[in-house]
Specification:
two-stranded antiparallel sheet; 190 residues; alpha/beta; 5 helices; homodimer
Amino acid sequence: MRLLEERIEKDGRVKDGNILKVDSFLNHQMDCGLFMDMGKELYRLFGNEGVTKILTIEASGIGIACITALVFGVPALFAKKARTKNIDGDVYTSKVHSFTSGLTYDIIVSHRFLLPEDRILIVDDFLARGQALMGLIDLVRQAGATLVGCGIAIEKCFQEGGRMIREQGIRVESLAAIESMSENGVVFRR
Amino acid sequence: MRLLEERIEKDGRVKDGNILKVDSFLNHQMDCGLFMDMGKELYRLFGNEGVTKILTIEASGIGIACITALVFGVPALFAKKARTKNIDGDVYTSKVHSFTSGLTYDIIVSHRFLLPEDRILIVDDFLARGQALMGLIDLVRQAGATLVGCGIAIEKCFQEGGRMIREQGIRVESLAAIESMSENGVVFRR
């Protein structure tokens, strides 16, 4: 998606350790007009798949997921990182390891909102090592729902997550796919 | 806002301890069409205030904030609960005590996204004891930005947060204001 690539070139900053900072428009401050364009692009890609729900994980996936859900005309659902007493009843749970924080945490979704008849599009801001995405895919499988695919804002193609998930036969569409990056800038896969 | 009150009457569930569960449409599964109606109502209330940015706190405020930001045509910004290494540089920070979890945590916003010239509308899903909102208000003050007001989805009027914040001269608008609630249902303030 040219618009997102241009925005990354203009406002993204590459930091040590293969970190791409996009906090001015994607995951701290959020350009919701850009999210609308991203949601429309995801609708172009997945709009004929009968999607019934958009699934994401807190926190930085929620904005993109909600505006995508608005475009699709379906609800959004976010998996919670387990630390609240405020979810009751039966939940699906999976474990996610974060290489950023070094922590492993549980993610949970209520049984009531992930149903066998659901056709799920997973949406998230980043795909790098694929840990969060694999946790979400696990939740969809536990529910017996159909996974239509994954729509990702930014994929780091030089990390293994995208390959691992596509090898499972899952459709993954990235709106910006980064081949490599350095202090000199970002090279996109075309 | 009649539409939100009706939805609370239809799908909200009152639990022990003055907990109102609205996880089927507000803070776990999210009805983003409803969020659009809420964003339009907030625009009716605050649209002539020259708002430059919508500020919220992760996680459950993000969806409403993003769709409200879309309506206002301004960026959204969410305060992070401090646990990531991925925010660098200078941040404003404040402490928030959660009565739900019993924990006190730091919230942070980058200096780069909260500016003295900003006119901030704070948006959140709930106002009860006001702890999260007071943390956000503190961040706005530290930045020297102008606080236009607070737009809240659901206020529990029988808890002290709304009174405390209004006594500071801050405009607080709640789309649904709950006077009292019990197993028999919810009574709204009209």
